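Lab notebook page, bench 4
Experiment: in silico fold of construct C2
Operator: M.H.
Input chain length: 234 residues
Purpose: comparison with the prior construct
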Amino acid sequence: MAPVKKNVLITGANRGIGLSLCKAFIARNYNVFGSVRPESRDDPSVAELRKTGASVIEFDVTDESTIAAAFDSWGDKPLDILINNAGAPTRPRMWDEVTAEALIDKFRVNAVGPFIVSQIFMPALEKSKSPKIINIASNAGQIAANKDGKYMAYKVSKTALNQVTRSLGMQMEMTKSKVIVAGIHPGWIPTKLTGMTGPDQMDVQIPKIVKTIESIGASQNGGFMDAEGKIMEF
């Protein structure tokens, strides 16, 4: 009897790291579900996502009602891996360009979104034998590593995401849940979100990330690590 395929849901799946993760997990024989925003359904990038063989799910990580509707359509199947990848871009760069709107927008997408998606899909995760929530984090969220203060709104939101990862992981352990929560800094990969800048290569980093996700265990619950699984300071 053939082994049952594991189910993985990747948010922000129609481009960049999300799309590459979809391709990598499909190549490793997972059932892959990729989320896209409803307003993006006619974008060519969504057609590219469909070509990978992934099942496309529509929701906006900043709109709780759309996430709830997506969960309602999920059915009774378990969710083995949830990868919270959807994110807001790094700009504005300098402090005097930062507005309240920019701070709130980054916070909603990069910190609140992953938490709400995890919360709403928790019943599906609990049906898995070894469920994992993976938050695509950033070394930009490390307070001690902040050397120039640039991209303040983005950094603040990623610091908040680290706290979400740590706190949720601790609470999963406290309540004896099977769910393991971890944050992964994927590297600085050129994508639309980074303005196509960065020294790391997608085809090098993605296999490392997938290997790390598959190897994460209970001892790393609530942890923050790089693409190779090396522990990083929050």
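Observations: The chain has one domain: 7-226. Strands lie at 7-10, 31-36, 55-58, 81-84, 132-136, 180-185, 223-226.
Next step: discuss at group meeting.
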